[in-house]
Design a protein that fits this description.
By secondary structure, the chain is mainly beta. About 10% of the residues lie in helices and about 55% in strands. The chain has a single domain, classed as Thrombin, subunit H (Beta Barrel), CATH 2.40.10. The chain has a six-stranded antiparallel beta barrel with strand order 1-2-3-6-5-4. The N and C termini lie far apart (about 40 Å).
Length: about 110
């Protein structure tokens, strides 16, 4: 078994284990313009997922303490998606994927 397969299995265990598993919903809104009707149709997709919310603190180059919230997720979010974890809803900012062998298995999204 390769090291990548082991990481993939570990991530799957993390997202399915009762200790960390938090069911969440990702809401993705998209708009399509129809030039024949001159109307824009907006649709919202609800994507069930598992997310783990974390907070990271670090200091900038000038010494300012910065606090950033992010979520580890088992589905790929897009910027401006809405992520609902429990009673709170967050807006997704930047997204980083973990894909050491080219196949992503966990995503980290900055959330506000």
């Amino acid at each position: 078994m390769s090291i990548y397969a082991e990481f993939r299995d570990l991530a799957a265990e993390l997202f399915t284990g009762d200790d960390f598993k938090v069911e969440a919903t990702l809401l993705r809104t998209s708009s399509t313009y129809n030039k024949f009707t001159d109307k824009t149709v907006t649709t919202t997709a609800s994507i069930p997922c598992v997310a783990i919310r974390k907070v990271r603190e670090f200091r900038s180059n000038d010494g300012v303490l910065i606090t950033e919230s992010f979520a580890l997720m088992n589905v790929e979010p897009k910027p401006n998606d809405k992520l609902t974890i429990g009673p709170k809803t967050y807006t997704v900012g930047t997204v980083k994927e973990t894909a050491p062998d080219g196949n992503a298995f966990v995503w980290e999204a900055a959330i506000k």
